[in-house]
Amino acid sequence: MSSIETIHVDGVWLAAAAGETREVLDPADATTLQLVSEGSAKDADAAVEAARRAFDNGAGAWPRTAVAERSALLRRVADLLQRDREEIALIESRDTGKTLEEGRVDVDDVTNAFRYFADLVMNESGGRVVDAGSPDVHSIVVHEPVGVCALITPWNYPLLQASWKIAPALAAGNTFVIKPSEVTPLSTVHLIKLLVEAGLPAGVANLVTGAGLPVGQRLAEHPDVDLFSFTGGLVSGTKAGAAAVSGAKKIALELGGKNPNVVFADACATEEGFDTAVDQALNAAFIHSGQVCSAGARLIIEESVRDRFVAELARRAEKIKLGRGTEDGVECGPVVSQQQLDKVEAYVASALAEGAQLRCGGARPEPSDVRPATGYFYAPTVLDGCHREMKVIREETFGPILTVETFTTEDEAVALANDTEYGLAGAVFSGDTARARRVAARLRHGTIWINDYHPYLPQAEWGGFGKSGIGRELGPAGLDEYRESKHIYENLRPEPVRWFAG
């Protein structure tokens, strides 16, 4: 299989400087999907240099492009995304293992993000007027782009996470270098091609495919990078963030979550309510095989309805159809890699050793139950009788594992939900509106759903408390991450101060 050039520097597609390549595997059957360029620190340096020139060079540089022109380019990209919707969805499905329908939803969400930031930057005023307390002073606060941005994206939602960074970065007038996960780089390559087709000047958007070491590390520590934005795991994110902070860069980190889904008995008081709560618990835990930073992997359910609820949950989980994401009728694809499959197996083994009760799953499916049989598949798993001391409760498993904890009082439910180092997202299901809102207000997580799970809005901020990260993406704050505030104080009637007598 011939390799494709996946390093994009200063408007040119390149092979890696060292000539290295990497196999991108199809997680559905473990075969090679594509050979791509395997970048190095040298490639990262070249990309940063190109981004620096595109930011700094003269009146025609990207940050000095009219806001209306930047907004129009983002809208052209959105239109191109919709033009290529099926192609991109297929790329994303084959690369990550998610279903084709999930891939289509991702493309639509990415389109919405580009359109949102195109509108947001156009609707802003020319600056915030500050009352200086004198008619002889004109004082305003304006926003300017940060500069060169290094963007690191994860393997589970490569296209979506790229858009959450690229769209506001370009809207604000920045240039960037993006490094997608080496496991799932293909949709990001396509997105860069669309940026070029939309008319983005050379050097504004640069791409280096390759591993976190050395490419991501070099981008984090590079002296000409002004902002470092990372989405991924806690361990690698904190290391990269530390390297970025040592150079006094602006940083934004989204480091995952261990997210509670709190279900009160009154949410199940009717058959319709019970059915909805069970269905949403499945959705929360098993979409994209649980490989979602906001997955509701911790079911925290009121004791009085626990037995019936968990029995029905396990019954439905056993019926989830596994297979290649592009096949009709498949509801859940594989996990992304052999490494991830090994981690999932290890988490289940540790939970069972610590006393959890296996209600369903807990193993790879039989070869006769899934096609292709050689893929990285793991059966949706429900573990009952879990408690806070278990590793599977404390750590982000990033796989099709749902744990069950119980409570008897509202205070106990809140305490369990907040008993985590993370704080990205969570949900409350209750038939009592006052209770649901009261509990939502007490939960220390960046996004709280009430009687729902997983939807997000590009106009609403996304990010977490605690070890879930630093900063916010999406919403007005998501644009502000890519800007610096500047105060301009103008004296309209200058005269000597006479502070010094001489």
From TrEMBL:
<feature type="domain" description="Aldehyde dehydrogenase">
    <location>
        <begin position="13"/>
        <end position="488"/>
    </location>
</feature>
<protein>
    <submittedName>
        <fullName>Aldehyde dehydrogenase family protein</fullName>
    </submittedName>
</protein>
<dbReference type="InterPro" id="IPR016162">
    <property type="entry name" value="Ald_DH_N"/>
</dbReference>
<dbReference type="Pfam" id="PF00171">
    <property type="entry name" value="Aldedh"/>
</dbReference>
<feature type="active site">
    <location>
        <position position="254"/>
    </location>
</feature>
<keyword id="KW-0560">Oxidoreductase</keyword>
<dbReference type="InterPro" id="IPR016161">
    <property type="entry name" value="Ald_DH/histidinol_DH"/>
</dbReference>
<dbReference type="InterPro" id="IPR015590">
    <property type="entry name" value="Aldehyde_DH_dom"/>
</dbReference>
<comment type="similarity">
    <text>Belongs to the aldehyde dehydrogenase family.</text>
</comment>
<keyword id="KW-0520">NAD</keyword>
<dbReference type="InterPro" id="IPR016160">
    <property type="entry name" value="Ald_DH_CS_CYS"/>
</dbReference>
<dbReference type="InterPro" id="IPR016163">
    <property type="entry name" value="Ald_DH_C"/>
</dbReference>
<dbReference type="InterPro" id="IPR029510">
    <property type="entry name" value="Ald_DH_CS_GLU"/>
</dbReference>
<comment type="pathway">
    <text>Amine and polyamine biosynthesis; betaine biosynthesis via choline pathway; betaine from betaine aldehyde: step 1/1.</text>
</comment>
